[in-house]
Design goal:
Helix content of chain A: 55-70%
Distance between the termini of chain B: 60 Å
Oligomer: heterodimer
Order of helices and strands of chain B: HHHHEEEEEEEE
Strand content of chain A: under 5%
Structural class of chain A: mainly alpha
Distance between the termini of chain A: 13 Å
Structural class of chain B: alpha+beta
Strand order of the largest sheet of chain B: 5-4-7-8-1-2-3-6
Shape of chain A: globular
Radius of gyration of chain A: 19 Å
Largest sheet of chain A: none
Largest interface: A-B, 52 and 47 residues
Number of helices of chain A: 8
Amino acid sequence: MSAVVAIDEVTVAAFRRGDEGAVRRFYDVYGRMMFAVASRILRDRGLAEEATQQAFVQAWRAASSLDGARDPAPWLSTIVRRVAIDIQRREARRPASALDHVPPGHRALTVLPPNAEMAWEVWNVRMAIDQLPADEREVVRLQHLEGFTHAQIAERLGVALGTVKSRSFRAHRDLAARLAHLRSEAG
Amino acid sequence: MPMPDDLDGDTLADLDLYLDLLADRDVWAEASPELSGRIVAAVTAERAHLAVEPSITGTRLGSSRLMHIGGALLAGAAAALLAVGAISLLRASDQQEVALVGAGSASDITGSVDVLVVDSGVRLQLRAAGLPRRHGGQFYEGWLKNCDGSLLVPIGTFHDLDDATGWAGVSLDQFPLLTVTTESATGPKDPLQGSSGDVVLTAQVGTPCPGS
């Protein structure tokens, strides 16, 4: 199983022509995942936006090679990863202060550029997150991103602990189902 | 973090591979709402740009081939090339260069901005040497402003202004003033405008406002 094909052939054809509505449709469907891949690589919102924008322009320029019957997601993931790595290299060439002054987590301390598999994992994790209902997504966000316990989430959201547990169960079950294909693709 | 304890082993194993990503702030990151408009404008500008470039290539190719083609074909091709060239000139004239003027703490800085108007908006390519590169949550942000200053439209965020390109999907007739401000990811902002108000560059990119 791969990503859901959310763009039809008519929209792909319109995208090739540079039709404004089709470009917006592509962004609505794929923009968040492209931005997540760029953000994960560049660790900087401004640079990630630059990468996403450049990737869209490159995708449009190469759209004649896009098979309208296939899911464009892997193709777009590859483009945005390459653009982000190019920007990462460009930024790495800029004069910088001594390494002692670089804060932990800064992209200058990243040793290797992310491989295609990692970018595809980021793409799919973000897509799986976005496909969750809003109330379940918020529980997952608070649990994994903020590190809250179920009890803390219940208190924060003002709902019963059992409600949080059931939302969490459904969300994780769905996330696992949506990400299971990555293991088979890798294996 | 607690995982639901009633998930089966395979499900937990599937998720275990991606826990780092689920806890990664960048995987959850949201782009600014303006990015969609900037991308549409960028693709539209690229389309217009390529419509000019192939016509130039076509002229060169045509010139070499014309020697091998009969007179009637030659006349027809020449007429077509002239028409394409005229269209190219018209499109190229949509771009203009205007001066960037330093303000506030950067009053000694000057530069230029190339303004390209396309179907869905405007591309602004800024060049201003001498401003320090900003990083670590500090950045520059470009804005288009209406005449009474009541509305700001963001065109992009930049770490430096050596060669920075911004986009906006609005008309320069309504938003003729360009400003560049210094911003901080955590700094104070005008709650209505989203800007710090610390202007370092300005330019008149549209028709001057009445009384200015």
